[in-house]
Amino acid sequence: MKTLKIWMLSLILTGLASVSFAQGGKKVEEVKFKTSAVCGMCKATLEKGLAYEKGVNKATLDVNSKVLTVAFNSDKTSVEKLKKAVNDLGYDADASPATLRAYDRLDACCKKENGSH
Amino acid sequence: MLFSKRQAVFALTLWGLLLPFIGQAQALAGRVVDAANATPLIGASILWLGTSQATSTDANGHFTLAPAPNGETAVLVSYIGYKSDTVQVQGRAHLVVQLKPVTSLQEVTITGRQDRYSALTPTNSQVITAQDLTKSACCNLAESFETNASVEVSTSDAVSGAKQIQMLGLDGAYTLMTTDNVPALRGLATPYRLNYLSGTYIDAIDIIKGTGSVLNGYESISGQVNVRLKDPEKSDRLYVNLYGNSLAKWDANVNTSFTLTPKLSTVLMLHTDQLSNRVDGNNDGFLDLPLGKHYNVFNKWKYNTGKQWVAEIGIQALRETRLSGQVGYRPGMPQREGSLYGIESETDRFSAFSKTSYTFKNRPYQSIGLILSGARHDFDSHYGPRTYDGYQNSGLANLIFQSAFGNTAHTYKTGLSYQYEDFQEDLAGQRLSRKERVPGAFFEYIYQNSKNLTLVGGVRADHHNLYGWVYTPRFNMKYDFNPNSILRLAAGKGFRVANPIAENVASLISNRAFYFQNNLQPEKAWNLGGSFTQYFEVGERKGAFITDYYYTTFQNQIVPDMYSSPYQVAFTNLNGESFSKSFQAELQYEISSMLDVKAAYKYFDVRTTYNGQLLQRPFIPNHRAFLNLGFATPFDKWRADLTTQWFGNRLVPVMEHAMDQHNAPIKTRTVHPYAVFNGQITRAFKRWEVYVGGENLLDYKQKNPIIAADRPFSQDFDASMVWAPVIGRVIYAGMRFTIK
After folding, report:
1. Which of B105, B278, B441, B444 counts the highest number of beta carbons within 10 A?
2. Distance between CA B702 and CA B694 in Å, rounded?
3. Is residue A114 part of a domain?
4. Does the fold of domain B228-739 match that of domain B28-101?
5. B228-739: CATH superfamily
6. Interface pTM (ipTM) of the complex?
7. Which residues of chain B, if any, have pLDDT below 70?
8. Could you tell me which of B200, B224, B197 has the C-alpha nearest to residue B210?
């Protein structure tokens, strides 16, 4: 049982850790955040918002798992900056909570207490 | 026998009567979902009708409601932003309730942001969104309609720079203008009113064609334009917009909002536009557009308890000065032969409104609202030698009660209103003044079956201190053949007291004598029409086809007759027929994920009896076409827009030949079709947006728009015969900066 727990934990950690790989000479990394997104509209908001962040190549939210996958150039931005960008759009990113003001201004359907739909 | 037969019958009857109640005396469970996509609604309230026994849904939309206290058989299900619904339980223990998003225009109640799909309103409505507003040049209401096919904006004359909207081929005065659903900018403010609201103040614009609701008074005849101002609760912390164009006109706009307490928020909006460069592109010796300085402040407050009470207050103040006329004209030059012709005006306006609404506890369908508004409009001007000064004080109180009969399929709005107007105009020594006091009452009944039919019937009765009782019936119907095919019908009456000078300021820029018939009567008209909307999908891309037809017939109209004689404009009551027939077909389609197209064709037949002759209204073309291409890359990083408006042949009066003979039959000639192109490109960054655009890209101009421009003090001078742009190509650039 204990081994299973450790095994699970390491699996999660691996999943959440940044994976580096080279692409066209640029240093492109990928990071996954567990977000508080609940609907298709959240997906649009997050993907659009991140598209405007410096250094972001691509951002994709899987609504079912709430996992946001961001491909970014680590010379131009960092995981912390990306987390903050997600928070400033009104969503939690892993343990980092959403900026209150941004969360308040989300449409009712995008608020996390509404549950996934 | 223990019981007699009679007793047995009695007992059985009693049992029969009690049965439904006993059947009811159990807990009710169920689920509340969105009717469109079956997603659960969280926190929806379920209430035994007529009681205070209520519960709300959990995170999955499920609920359990304790048994009805007095054997009630129906529950009321409600959710913010959705239409409340009454459901007969009919002995069931488990219910699935589907709610639909709110459809009706909410005149008073403001409960969070709602989705407004034009597929739902009972009237033929369109919305110009904030995103659409950024597609056209900055920064006033006139430019906001550039990418919309239903509203036309035209220049009224070649000198003053005044612009007017037109709907259904009728002058903008017949369109009711409201801000946040409160009537605004009426009466003497008409000539330059489109300048008084900056585009940056606006969240969205609702355009309602044809007869609307009776709640906002008797005035609207061709339709309603409602400007939704920025919502203090949702506004960005900072929004800056700077704009400059090739004529050296510039605009600056700053909006800032604060949330003072969780319940109280405010937005402060500032606007200025200035032009001090003298432009005479057509070399007629007259400025093509006036020099001017305009300062405008709007402050809006919102107090939202999140429960029963919501209140909003708005305050606006503006000052606008204009100078136009011959290029060499300077303020204060004498206005007589041998000098230079000039126009100067100064306008000061102060207005305020408040809206308060109370929604009854446990009765979300029932609310009461009070709207108060007041304005002071003050102007001093001279148009050449003719002075035109005046003021208007207005006050309006409107109390609206909204509730339902039995269940929410039958709702109604009723209330009382009081309107006060104090007008005074001095035109070259001639004084016109009037005071209006109009108490009124209105009632509107709305029937909505749960499937496909909405009926709205309204009537109002007002007592005008000058013109007696005014009855205004109005009717709207919406029928969905299926969710994609919608038919709407509208019929109704309108009434308004015209302000002939303010509505015809263009004629002041001539040496025509103003002649008023004695005993001018209010304008009255019926408007009948309908529209058909078909939503469709081709190749997985969405589109809509909208077609409408409206017929407006005037029982009385104040006819400005500028055509019977070149030396006067006569304002007379309508003597004969006056009508407008308007047809429009519009297609909207998303050609690819990056390209949207809107195309429209319009046909107008507008005729009025002038001096005994039924004539086409001059300057209004029979045929018009509109094409808008909107291009956007993913996430709107690049946006580009191109809009073309094509105007067919139109009749214009021939004044030059009429000058010899008085009272000759009106002569007209046909002017050729032309097209105007506008375009814009925007690049968006995280907080910045930069835009470049052009208006009248083909540089189409009317030749010699001013008659006798070289002799402005002669009797022949006339700048009001304008049917095409006076200003040529204008290139502009600007930027927007936002902190959310």
Report:
1. B444
2. 18
3. no
4. no
5. TonB-dependent receptor, beta-barrel domain (2.40.170.20)
6. 0.74
7. 1-26, 36-38, 50, 71, 80-81, 90-93, 101-120, 656-665
8. B224
Residue A7 included in any domain = no
Report phi then psi at B634, rounded to 5. -50, 140
**What dotted CATH number matches B125-227?**
2.170.130.10
CATH of B28-101, one of 2.60.40.1120, 2.60.40.150, 3.30.70.20, 2.40.30.10: 2.60.40.1120
Which whole-number Å values give the CA distances from A14 to A10, A25, A58, B19, B84, in the listed order? 6, 25, 20, 64, 48
Bridging pattern class, strands B28-34 and B94-99: parallel
Instruction: Give, in order, the Cα–Cα distances in Å from B485 to each of B98, B207, B450, B452.
Output: 21, 20, 17, 10
Where are any strands of DSSP class E within B305-409?
309-325, 342-359, 367-383, 386-404
Amino acid letter at A113?
E
Tokens 């690819």 belong to residue? B592
Residue among A52, A108, A117 minimizing CB distance to B685: A52
Q: Is residue A93 part of a domain?
A: yes
Q: How far from each other are the two terminal CA atoms of chain B, in whole angstroms?
A: 84
Partners of A51 on chain B (C-beta within 8 Å) are: 634-635, 637
Residue B738 sits at φ, ψ, to 5 deg, of: -130, 135
- Which of B60, B259, B636 is the closest to A115 by Cβ? B60
In A, what residues contact B, Cβ < 8 A? 39, 47-48, 51-54, 88, 101-102, 105, 107-108, 113-115, 117
Buried b (16+ CB within 10 A) or exposed e, A58-82: ebebebeebbbebbbeeeebebeeb
Give me the residue label for tokens 């200035």.
B274
DSSP tally for chain A: helices H, then strands E: 4, 4
Beta-carbon contacts of B283 under 8 Å, excluding residues fewer than 6 positions away, are none
Q: What is the CATH number of the domain that holds A65?
A: 3.30.70.100
Token pair, residue B579, equals 């009508």
Domain count along chain A: 1
In whole angstroms, what is the distance from residue B221 CA to residue B208 CA? 11
CA distance A110 to B205: 25
pLDDT exceeds 80 at position A82: yes
- Counted residue by residue, chain A has a size of 117
The pLDDT of residue B179 is 94
CA atoms of B673 and B668, how far apart (whole Å): 16
Question: Residue B551: what pLDDT?
Answer: 98
Q: With contacts defined as CB-CB under 8 Å, which chain A residues touch B234?
A: 105
Strand order in the sheet with B62-65: B62-65, B28-34, B94-99
**Sheet of B152-155, strands arranged across:** B152-155, B163-167, B170-171
With beta carbons less than 8 A apart as the criterion, state whether A109 and A90 touch.
no
Compute the CA torsion angle B463, B466, B468, B474 (nearest 10 deg). -60
pTM, two decimals, is 0.81
Counting one residue from A and one from B, how many pairs have CB atoms under 8 Å apart? 34
Contacts of A117 in chain B (CB under 8 A): 39-40
Q: For residues A95 and A89, give the distance between their C-alpha atoms in angstroms, rounded to a whole number.
A: 15
Residue A68 belongs to a domain: yes
Those residues whose C-beta lies under 8 Å from the C-beta of residue B402, and which sit 6 or more positions away, are B108, B109, B365, B366, B367, B368, B369, B411, B412, B413
Q: What does the domain layout of chain B look like in residue ranges?
A: 28-101, 125-227, 228-739
Which of B257, B686, B689 is the best mutation test for A, with the most CBs of A within 10 A?
B686
> Rounded CA gap, B76 and B87, in Å?
6
Q: For position B530, what pLDDT does the model report? A: 95
* Chain B residue at shortest CA distance from A107: B113
Give the strands of the sheet with B568-573, arranged side by side: B513-516, B568-573, B558-561
Q: Looking at chain B, how many residues does it have?
A: 740
**Which residue segment(s) compose the domain that A91 sits in?**
28-108
